Amino acid sequence: MSKISAVICAAGRGERAGFGKNKLLAPLNGAPALFYTLEAFDLEIIDEVIVASSAEDFEEISALCSPFGYRVVTGGETRTLSVYNSLKECTGDIVLIHDGARPYIKKDVIERAICCAEEHGSAICAVPVTDTVAVCGEGEILSVPERSTLFALQTPQAFWLKDILSAYERAVKDGGSYTDDSAVFARYVGRPHICKGDRANIKLTYKSDFAGAYPAVNTAEGQAVGIGADVHAFGKNQPYVTLCGVKIEHPTGLIAHSDGDVAVHALMDALLSAAGLEDIGHYFPDTDIKYKDADSMELLKKVVCLLSENGFAPLNASITIRAEKPRLAPHICSMQRNIAAALELNDSSVGISAGTCEKLGFVGKGLGIEAIAAVLLEKKNG
Q1: Per-residue pLDDT tens digits for 94-132
Q2: 23 within 8 A of 103, measured Cβ to Cβ
Q3: Could you tell me which of 142, 182, 136 has the C-alpha nearest to residue 163?
Q4: What distance in Å separates the CA atoms of residue 256 and residue 251, rounded to the nearest whole number?
Q5: Best label site of 233, 256, 258, 357, fewest CB within 10 Å?
Q6: In CATH, what number does 4-196 get?
Q7: Which of 213, 376, 368, 362 lies closest to 279 in space, CA to CA?
Q8: pLDDT class of 215 with cuts at 50, 70, 90
Q9: Mean of pLDDT over the chain
Q10: How many CA atoms lie within 13 A of 177 on its CB side?
Q11: Are 7 and 92 contacting, i.e. CB atoms less than 8 angstroms apart?
Q12: What is the mean pLDDT of residues 78-95?
């Protein structure tokens, strides 16, 4: 039987999603989006998994990969270089290359790709295009290809390792940059073979593709509701986590550019969403060194000032924190007081609850903490 390697590309930033950070570390249904992709490849038929990460996300992605035993390598400035760096670390006969932004990949698609690559030398997962596609230029339709010949390409894409590694070596030497592995194969090896994909295997591209991207909801005239969510993985070398400004003992901290206060981050996104403003990644990007290890409570105060400048004031706030550890009940009152003070509200206008995930999923496995926040704002007169 062939030895199977898998490469998961997670070294980009996904700027079209607008999170101000790697979109794969943004929350999706209670966990970082990348977690679901990693989980999907935790199969007996896969012998090794190599994950490409940027240098700035290496710590957090390594923490996510650790429970699965996956190896993390530093990617390059382009997808082409990231894949090439990963392929050099593979030891299998067949290699699957998959975008980390496709978390809905299913086992049967992976199995089909492996079988197709063993038989034909390549396997490009694809689905027929259902919309009419036009070639356009200068605002006009130039031509309309026959729809029956058009397919939307997906990942994973599988190849004999020796073939695709050789192709990438030549591509890198030639200075080429490719967004799709089949194009590299076609350029240097031969015609790639199509393999049946899955319409559910969508790629997360825009913020609306993420469950945590909630819009503002209008209520009574002059009021607005906002919902925000955030999630961080354990792994920072410090003996505590910070939640709502309270330091709580724990063997490791939460990995983040700032202090990792996941509850406050969710709250800030809820406040900004209700006011129709950009999210925290826009105002406090993790690419800005001045926010390195920043105190999230201080950032929250800046958000409150920003709301005021736009004519809004908080009426109340509710935060739900989900964590298997540490135990949060003894700290709830302190958290509540901190948030109320920052929002200039009475303690009774702030609700904070904590719970576990009953050992299920990312949080349930003790890999990190998730927080969801909801707020009600009022539009100030004048």
Answers
A1: 999 999 999 999 999 999 999 999 999 999 999 999 999
A2: no
A3: 182
A4: 16
A5: 357
A6: 3.90.550.10
A7: 213
A8: very low
A9: 92
A10: 4
A11: no
A12: 97
Query: Distance between CA 104 and CA 37 in Å, rounded?
Result: 7
- Rg of the chain over CA atoms, in angstroms? 23
CA distance 319 to 183: 47
CA proximity to 100, closest of 182, 39, 168, 15: 39
Backbone angles phi, psi at 196, to 5 degrees: -60, 125
In the structure encoding, which two tokens stand for residue 217, read together? 């909801």
List the one residue out of 235, 239, 274 whose CA is nearest residue 369: 235
Classify domain 214-379 at the CATH superfamily level.
Answer: 2-C-methyl-D-erythritol 2,4-cyclodiphosphate synthase (3.30.1330.50)
The verdict on whether omega for the bond into residue 156 sits within 30 degrees of 0, i.e. cis, is: yes
Helical residues (DSSP H) of 131-202, grouped into ranges: 161-173, 181-188
For residue 174, what are the CA distances in angstroms to 52, 87, 171, 178, 294? Answer: 22, 17, 5, 12, 43
Give the per-residue pLDDT at 23.
93
Residue 220 pLDDT grade (very low, low, confident, very high; cuts 50, 70, 90): low
DSSP string, 46-59: --EEEEEE-TTTHH
Location of each CATH 3.90.550.10 domain in the chain: 4-196
pLDDT value of residue 211: 59
pLDDT above 90 covers a percentage of the chain that reads 81
Residue linked to tokens 């199509």: 194
269 contacts: CB under 8 Å, gap ≥ 6: 226, 228, 229, 230, 279, 280, 373
CATH 3.30.1330.50 domain range(s) in the chain: 214-379
The stretches of the chain forming alpha helices (DSSP H) are 33-40, 58-65, 79-87, 107-120, 161-173, 181-188, 262-274, 280-283, 296-309, 332-343, 361-364
Residue 57 corresponds to which tokens in the numbers above? 């996300």
Cβ atoms of residues 110 and 102 within 8 Å: no
